[in-house]
Amino acid sequence: MLVTVVTVVKNNKNFIARTLESVLQQKYKNIELIVVDGKSDDGTYKIIYDYFKEFKLISRKDKSVYDSLNYACKIAKGDFLCFLHSGDVYYNDKVISTFVKNVNGIDLISSNILYFNDNLNITRLWRAPNDTFNQYNSHKFSHTGMFYSKKIYKKFLYDENFKISSDSKFLSKIGTKKIKHKSINFYSVCMFNKGLSTEMSSLTQRVKEDLDYLIDYHKYKFLYYYFLKITHKIPSFINFASNINKIEKKMFYTFKKIEKSCLRKKIYQMEYYFFFKKIKLIKNINKFINNKNNFVLSALNLAFLGSLYSKKIIIYKDLYHWPDGYLPLMISRSYKNINKVAGRNLVRNIKLNNKIKEVHVLGNLNKDQKKFLRILLKKTVRHTQLPFGSPSFIASKCPKLKKNVIYFLTIPTPKQEQVSEILSIKNKNFKLVLLGGAINILTGVEKEVPKKLAYIEFLWRLRFETLKRLRRLISTTISFIFHSIFEKKYNNILK
What we know:
The chain is 38% helix and 17% strand. By secondary structure, the protein is α/β, with parallel strands linked by helices. The protein has two domains: 3-250, Alpha-Beta Complex (Spore Coat Polysaccharide Biosynthesis Protein SpsA, Chain A), CATH 3.90.550.10; 276-486, no CATH class.
């Protein structure tokens, strides 16, 4: 029996690999794999094209995700079909085979699903009831946890005028017909809590669309069914299973297995929860710079942590740090015996060996600064001025990175980390040191902070580009406090 698995994606480069790898790891192998990409421009298409040749990849401009779902259903050839959205994964490698074992004489199979967050904590368990499936109770079932026969997915289409609730309307429409349904008590899909339907910003739109389709199917009783729809979800948030730890442990195992497989394929354009969610702090900077083949070396300080916690930047394979700020050193026991190294002092104390042929500065650098670095580092110094713009635009203006050349970036956080991530993907060789404004202080363009004020250097530096730096200081501080203290986000990142 042929099973079709459909994934629709647009601009989701950090998460698409884990979804597709999850499908490939299924024990059941008679699968038609369809990915519909909505003309991504962030590198998503390239990841699918380069690493997942097994999938039928279609790139098309769509009106909405439901437009692409309809398109996929029209071209699908499977006897049964299921959906796996970008960012989601299968709970284990036996999900498809479990569905297949239960299809005899059945048109529609329902299953349990779970939701997880950034920290891989389960936030919700949604169990499919062992009820007859119809239009009056379709709200009790998860659209993603369904296994659809060809009889259903070829006959029913999604309403493309809806942006969020078309899947709910889709299930209500199916429920109006007499079908053979079976509910299985097992977890099939782990859903990433980042979809349109789970974002608070889309609440108004979701309510409007829910009421629209409920009026269509239930007329004057629509408010009653809307009440049932809302209240049915409450237990899935608060009545967690007694064996939640066991369920979460199995999910962790699945993620580790997926990520190891992606690493073997050298797919680095994704957020690795287990492999890369740790700060890699460098203590011997000279040894590291002279011996490490490829790296991006960034300052570990409040600006970085605030940008990380607010998802402006991510931790990726080749990203390392030196201890530039007092805050990380104070809040982590692991760093209590490590001293702060300001960016200007890092450059002052760099000793480059003979393997390093030259230093290339990307960003702002005047003639006097270039001469200063040449004398200090005893190397040829080259310079490429970078324009203002998006990270991808700035990266496109950088030269091809060469082997045995150290590159200094002199643009602010978080943009320098964003640009460097792109450069690390585009180039075979890269040795990138992210210095921000350190060269300006080193060369006297900005006055160096007095030693007595070293602990409050961030305030001292407000004397230069005051408004710009004040805005960044406030936003990163708020982000750090909110995510680390209240959300406890990345609470193990500095351990």
